[in-house]
Amino acid sequence: MKPLEGGNMAMTQSNWGNKFRAVWIIGVVLWAACHSFAKDPIVIGDLKVSPGEMGAGYLVVPAKKDPGCSIPVTVINGAKDGKILALIAAVHGYEFTPILSLYRLKSMIDPQKLAGTLVLVHIANLPGFQKRTIGGYNPLDGKDLNRVFPGDPNGTTTQRIAYVLTEEVVKKCDALVDLHCGDGNEDVIPQCYWMLSGDEKLDKISRDMVLAFGIKHNIIVKSPTKDIAQSKMLMLAAVLLSKPAFASESSLGRTDEEDILGNLTGIMSVMRYFRMVEGEASFVAEPVWIDELETISSEVDGLFYPQTKVGSYLSKGEKFGTMTDYLGNVIREFRSPLTGIVMLIINTPSANAGDLLFVVGTIKRD
Predict the structure, then answer these.
(1) Can you name the CATH fold of 294-363?
(2) Of 285, 268, 286, whose CA–CA distance to 277 is shortest?
(3) Which of 129, 174, 186, 218 is the most buried (most CB within 10 A)?
């Protein structure tokens, strides 16, 4: 009996040894796998932000033949893997609501609970913001940042801003939202722009982002080019680099809490769509799609008197405003070039030759 008992004990010890070795090997393999695929720090300009952390600083636009500038950014690198979502405010420096929305968002996000990474470009056109420049222009060179993408490292200040944003933000993100609102003289119906690239998969994601943002009126825009060098607009540059993207517009350029909360609600819904935070995205149930836009600009200097409001429906030929000279004499009447909804109208008297006055859009019926 004893030899048999001794043999059983040896066999039991051998089994336990084999099990221990197997568990140890599995543990080593799992440890190696976790460390091999650990989430990396994200590098944006001079910022290097580790997983689960938040970092803030400036993208530097170096001086060349004209002054340089800086772009304030915050990078929130979530502890968990996920998409890199870029949120860009103040491509037009007088558009304040998106700026305040992103600073508010920064205070709301816990990087330990975030999946993926947020890149917050707080003020893309800092010179325009500092000088309160209406019309979207950079006072350093008179250019519109949203007309010079993808930029030029040897161009003027605005072109160099676009280049830095393209290289450090657009090319490094997985998706992008270009946040706008009405400029200081513009009353705008809340709207989003959905850019069609011709890539069905990319276009579907961009469309989903638009609907998740939660604005009812959405404009369909077909890409006018496939050449990134001719993209001009930030949204189009992103799409041509195969990044799903859209642009949003909230109402008249101001700092109303309602508009800030609207942006935050939309951004959080887009983040839920990408599974960056807990919860389900909330999609617009009955979106209104605009498939044709017509714009009217002033041909003369004077005072503009609007006779309609954003969101109103006009028939083709219906009057939407008048222009007087500086003595108060009526010198122009403006009528809608098509039947549709008023998307934008200038809401301040001052109007110069070439200034945009009015935008009307037709509703897509099918």
Answers:
(1) OB fold (Dihydrolipoamide Acetyltransferase, E2P) (2.40.50)
(2) 268
(3) 186
Range 303-311 average pLDDT: 95
Strands 217-222 and 313-314: unpaired
Q: What is the mean pLDDT of residues 343-354?
A: 93
Chain segment 211-250, per-residue pLDDT in tens: 999 999 999 999 999 999 999 999 999 999 999 999 999 8
- Which residues are bridge partners to 350 per DSSP? 303
Please tell me which residue, 18 or 46, carries the higher pLDDT value.
Answer: 46
Domain boundary assignment for the chain: 42-273, 294-363
Calpha distance 18→26 (Å, rounded): 12
Question: What does the mean pLDDT of the chain come to?
Answer: 91
- What's the 3-state SS for the chain? CHHHHHHHHHHHHHHHHHHHHHHHHHHHHHHHHHHHCCCCCEEECCEEECCCEEEEEEEEECCCCCCCEEEEEEEEECCEEEEEEEEEECCCCCCHHHHHHHHHHHHHCCHHHCEEEEEEECCCCHHHHHCCCCCCECCCCCCEHHHCECCCCCCCHHHHHHHHHHHHHHCCCCEEEEEEECCCCEEECCEEEEEECCCHHHHHHHHHHHHHHCCCEEEEEECCCCCHHHCECHHHHHHHCCCCEEEEEECCCCCCHHHHHHHHHHHHHHHHHCCCCCCCCCCCCCCEEEEEEEEEECCCCEEEEECCCCCCEECCCCEEEEEECCCCCEEEEEECCCCEEEEEEECCCEECCCCEEEEEEEECCC
Q: What is the pTM of this model?
A: 0.88
User: Which CATH number is 42-273 given?
Assistant: 3.40.630.10
Give the confidence band of 173 by pLDDT, cuts at 50, 70, 90. very high
> What is the pLDDT confidence band of residue 301, given thresholds at 50, 70 and 90?
very high
pLDDT in tens, 136-153: 899 999 999 999 999 999
